[in-house]
Amino acid sequence: MGDRVMNYIVYFPRHLLALAVGLSISGYSLADISTPVVSKAILKELTVTASHTEQDVLNVANTVSVITEDDVQKQQAADIQDMLRYETGVSVRAQPMRAGATFSSVGRGGNEGVNIRGLEGNQVTIQTDGVRLPALYSFGPIVTGRGNYLEPEGYRRAEILRGPSSTLYGSEGLAGAVSFVTKDPEDLLTLGKDVQFNIRTGYASENKSWFTTPAVAARNEQVSAMLLYTQRDAEQLRNQGGVAGVGDTRTQSNPQQIDSDYWLGKLVWDVNDEHRLKFTVESIDRNTDTEVLSGLSSTVTALNADDRVRRDLYKMDYLYQPTSSNGLLRMARISLYQQDSRERQFSDERRTIGDRTRDNEYSELVQGVNAVFESQLGETVTQTFHYGVDYSQTDVQALREGTPAGTSFPDKPFPDTDYQLLGLFVQDEIALGQWRIIPGLRYDSYKLDPATGDQFYRGLPPESLSDSAVSAKLGVVWQQAPLLNWFAQYAEGFRAPTPQDVNSGFTNLSSPFFSYQTIANPDLKAETSRMYEVGLRGRDNQLRYSVSVFRADYKNFIENVAVSGAGTPADPMTYQSINRDKVTVTGIEGDARWQLDPVWAISAGFSWHRGDRRDDEGKTPLASIDPARLLAGLHYDQGEYYADLMLTHEQAKKRNPDADGYSPGSFTTADLMAGWQISRNASLQAGVFNLTDERYTHWADVRDLSADSQVIDAYTQPGRNVRVSFNYQF
């Protein structure tokens, strides 16, 4: 154990430590820090996601958690999975990369998406600055992970809204929403200067990754601007697999080289005290090269994967906030945006007879407008209205190319599709003494208009699809006392079918062993949900807590299933997206933080969910339900130094829908994080994760494995590992 930790420390370059000390001592002394311990109080948590405008969490009827920039830096989060590490009832599926050139897509999606209360993928809204991330797309060997479009260094806050969010955000809000807010110039101008430079750099041993984030911000009386850049280099995750070599029994991670470039630029013009314009450019370009040694065999001599993810966002925001409160309109925010995203996954497979390649692409080009307004009426009984409109038009395309014998390429798995979404919403917050009543209503219409006559689309004639949905919500908050805030809500959600769901069309009759085809379904209905939740939360200077119980009913789940066929060229296996089972999910969640004295605090959190599919044949457990989870934390912070010890316990998986499937056992991990505010300008963070070197797997990653699988260790998480980062601003 000691030798392993020492190896990590030795590997960390000495020049970085020298830089930290040199920069801090050269310009500032330790006297620049206010070292006297100041009494700390539990701070108020603010949320925007719950109502489109900033509010105290105590005033909303939703279960919402907020992750700040300070949290991200303490945890040294490198991706979305790290950011959500200590959130209960939330997980991220991220399998090891073991994909093949043709059939298997295991691990190809990286951080595939967020699971909230047992639902995942396109059933959860993920957005950055109010713009939805591209959809999760899966077809054969391609999976486009939604979490790969994000860079934690660019965000000042992330919010997780649990429960249906369609009354606020429309389609995809079936189970919840995760909202990321990018940094503004004022977030970088922390020293009171008109021009400020910042730099962060760090290292993680779990994948030998480095990142560097230089940033600059400037301002005058009316204009402020910023430019931030993050560069990351990483290798494969060091799991705890013990089998090296080649072939499908390999359990060590396949060799990878990952690099990404992220840019965030903003220009903010305060026209006057009431009007503000903001221009944002955000771009991420991520490349992953994998030598898939686990895919080699007696007939496959080499298999290499080259994947690239790119997202470019251009956005303009107009904000109007009148200085006088006499008018009806208290706030107006209008946003125009364009987002261009592309993912390319290329596989080169060398075989003893007949090499083959796969070149899969998926792209979305979306243009949209979002407008939110706030008005207030009444004096004794105050009503605050939030209302607005969302409109987006997305050009969705996918293309498959390659060189295998017996298959016609290029080929499109679905036709190029124009996908339009329109939403109109209103939410009223009625304040009556200790009571708040929050009704909401949203109308959404969607239209899929596929292109016709495309020579590369060889499926059945494509069909257009249009429909609409109305989502309602009713929330109640009773603020009985600071530590007794009761809340309850009823909320509805929906998810419109995607172009792939409606018009998937592909045929492969070249194999005598397994021939298959996918066919369209123009009669698909939207997935819908209804949720009931009650809870209690409170906050004073020493204690903050929240606990809730819920039940959610879902119907018209969209799944791609085999509907006919024997898998022969004469009778191919036929797959189609259909509306299936009803699903019920129930659960209880909670979290708390208690400030014991000015420097010491403890925290805890828990989640337990149960989900079942229901059809004519009875009910079966819902596979995407995570095991129960318990968190406990001990925190020390006296200003100059801080330390956090976090314990995570996950229960064994007990309800596996597959009787022959692998069910992981329980595990407990410990993480120790600490930091030193060297001077006003410099700080150092360090962490040792999985202190006890626990061997464990996440249910989300292994739920497709059989109980007798020989490669379970390939899905293990890293053993004991360290992270170190350094911040300097001047």
TrEMBL record:
Gene Ontology BP terms: siderophore transmembrane transport
TonB-dependent receptor plug domain residues: 58-177
Annotated ranges, domain TonB-dependent receptor-like beta-barrel: 301-691
Main location, first listed in the record: membrane
One cellular-component annotation, GO: cell outer membrane
Compartmental location: Cell outer membrane
The entry's keywords: Cell outer membrane, Membrane, Receptor, Signal, TonB box, Transmembrane, Transmembrane beta strand, Transport
Family: Belongs to the TonB-dependent receptor family. Hemoglobin/haptoglobin binding protein subfamily.
Protein name: TonB-dependent hemoglobin/transferrin/lactoferrin family receptor
